[in-house]
C-alpha cells in the first residue's frame, strides 16, 4: 500500500543549498554562557552582596538578562528551526514545527505563575514571622493586599508582576512568536533582522510596552524592544545549524567591537568620562533624540545596553580560546547549569528571594552576604546534577521500551 504524504495540502519542494542541518557537535559555549548568565542572575537578585562586583553588569551597560535572552534565542534557534524548515519545504505539518515552541511557552507560563505565588507566600510569611511589615510592600507586593481582586486578574495574564520575578513574561511572549520569527528568518534572514531593528527603534522611541494591571507602569522587559536580541539569537541559532556564522569573523569589526566594550568599561568606571558622556546624551535628548538612544533604560532595551551585549557577544565568539575554555572540564559545572536552564532559573529565583529576606532580617551579620550567593549556586548545581542523573537513568528505560514495542508479537 502506498504511503500517504506528510503534507497532502502542500507538495514537497526541492531543497536549496544551505538549509538547516544538524550541527556536527554541540557548541560548548551555548550551555556554558547560559549557565554563567543564570549564576549572575542569582547573584544580582540578592542586592548588596559583594559578588555583584564580578557580574557582567559591572563591565558595561548590559547585564545577565540580556545575556540570558541572547543565549535562549540561540538555543531556541538550534532546537526548533529544523522542524520549521521541514514545514517550509513541504516535508512536515505546520503544527509539528509550532507545537514544541508553544508547549515550551506553556511550561514557562506555569513556572511564572508558580514563582509569583511562591514569592507572595514567602514575603507574606516572613512579614508575620519576623514582624517586618515592609515585606508586604516590597517588589510591588502591596497590590495583592490593597487591590486583591485586580491583582488576581493581573496575575494569570502576567500584568501583575512581582519584582525579581519579571523576566519570564517577555520570554513567554517571544516564545509564542518564535515560530513566525523562525519562518521569516529561514526564508529572509536579513529582512527579518531589519524588521526586528525597525520594531525595536519605533517601540523604544514611542514607549510601546505592555501596561501593568493593577497599578501604573509597564512590563519590566518590554517584549517589543527585547524581541531584537531574541531574534538575533534565533538567527544565530539557524546559522549554527547550517555550520555558518551570522556575522563572519572580521579583524576590522573585531577591533571596533572590542574598542566599544573597553569604552563602555571606561564609561562605567571613570567618573569624569561618565559625567561627560551622560551630559552629551542629555544634550541629545534635549535636541529631540529618542529616549532609547539617549538613556540606559532597561525596559526599552536602550541602545547602549543593546550595543554592549552585541559587541561583547561578537568579541567572545571570535576568540578560539573562549571555545576551548568552555569545552574544558573546569567549565563542566557551568555547562551542566546551562543544560538545565529552566530548573536552575526557577530554583535560583526562589533562593535569591530567600536570600533577600535573610539579608534584611540579619543585616548585622557581616559574613552572610558572602555566604548566601555561594550557597544558592551550590544548591542550584546539586539540583542540576540530580536532574542530569535522573534524565540519564530514564534514557535506557525509554530505549528498552521502544525496543520492546518494535518486537513482533509472539505466535499464539
UniProtKB/TrEMBL annotation:
Origin species: Loktanella gaetbuli
Annotated Pfam families: OpgC_C
Bilayer-spanning residue ranges: 104-131, 168-186, 193-211, 217-238, 250-270, 306-327, 339-359, 365-384
Signal peptide: none
Protein name, per record: OpgC domain-containing protein
Keywords, comma-separated and alphabetical: Membrane, Transmembrane, Transmembrane helix
Region annotation Disordered: where it falls in the sequence: 1-22
Amino acid at each position: 500500500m502506498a504511503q500517504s504524504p506528510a503534507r497532502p495540502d502542500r507538495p514537497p519542494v526541492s531543497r536549496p543549498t544551505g538549509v538547516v542541518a544538524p550541527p556536527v557537535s554541540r557548541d560548548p559555549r551555548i550551555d556554558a554562557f547560559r549557565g554563567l548568565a543564570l549564576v549572575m542572575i542569582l547573584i544580582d537578585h540578592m542586592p548588596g552582596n559583594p559578588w555583584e562586583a564580578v557580574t557582567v553588569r559591572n563591565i558595561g551597560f548590559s547585564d545577565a538578562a540580556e545575556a540570558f535572552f541572547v543565549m535562549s534565542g540561540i538555543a531556541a534557534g538550534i532546537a526548533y528551526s529544523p522542524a520549521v524548515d521541514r514545514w517550509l519545504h513541504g516535508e512536515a505539518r505546520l503544527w509539528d514545527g509550532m507545537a514544541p515552541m508553544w508547549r515550551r511557552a506553556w511550561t514557562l507560563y506555569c513556572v511564572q505563575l508558580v514563582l509569583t505565588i511562591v514569592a507572595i507566600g514567602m514575603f507574606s510569611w516572613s512579614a508575620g514571622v519576623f514582624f517586618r511589615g515592609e515585606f508586604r510592600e516590597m517588589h510591588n507586593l502591596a497590590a495583592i493586599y490593597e487591590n486583591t481582586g485586580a491583582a488576581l486578574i493581573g496575575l494569570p495574564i502576567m500584568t501583575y508582576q512581582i519584582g525579581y520575578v519579571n523576566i519570564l513574561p517577555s520570554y513567554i511572549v517571544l516564545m509564542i512568536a518564535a515560530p513566525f520569527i523562525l519562518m521569516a528568518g529561514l526564508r529572509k534572514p536579513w529582512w527579518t533582522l531589519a524588521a526586528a531593528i525597525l520594531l525595536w527603534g519605533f517601540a523604544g522611541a514611542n514607549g510601546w510596552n505592555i501596561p501593568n494591571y493593577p497599578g501604573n507602569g509597564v512590563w519590566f522587559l518590554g517584549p517589543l524592544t527585547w524581541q531584537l536580541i531574541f531574534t538575533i539569537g534565533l538567527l544565530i541559532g539557524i546559522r549554527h545549524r547550517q555550520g555558518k556564522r551570522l556575522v563572519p569573523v572580521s579583524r576590522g569589526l573585531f577591533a571596533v567591537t572590542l574598542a566599544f566594550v573597553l569604552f563602555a568599561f571606561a564609561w562605567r568606571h571613570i567618573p569624569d568620562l561618565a559625567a561627560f558622556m551622560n551630559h552629551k546624551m542629555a544634550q541629545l535628548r534635549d535636541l529631540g533624540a529618542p529616549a532609547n538612544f539617549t538613556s540606559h533604560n532597561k525596559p526599552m532595551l536602550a541602545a547602549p545596553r543593546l550595543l554592549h551585549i552585541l559587541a561583547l557577544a561578537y568579541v567572545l565568539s571570535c576568540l578560539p580560546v573562549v571555545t576551548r575554555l568552555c569545552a574544558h572540564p573546569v567549565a563542566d559545572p557551568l555547562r551542566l547549569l546551562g543544560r538545565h536552564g529552566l530548573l536552575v532559573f526557577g530554583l535560583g529565583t526562589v533562593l535569591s528571594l530567600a536570600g533577600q529576606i535573610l539579608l534584611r532580617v540579619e543585616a548585622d551579620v557581616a559574613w552572610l552576604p558572602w555566604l548566601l550567593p555561594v550557597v544558592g549556586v551550590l544548591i542550584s548545581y546539586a539540583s542540576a546534577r540530580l536532574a542530569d542523573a535522573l534524565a540519564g537513568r530514564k534514557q535506557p528505560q525509554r530505549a528498552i521500551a521502544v525496543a520492546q514495542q518494535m518486537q513482533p508479537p509472539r505466535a499464539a
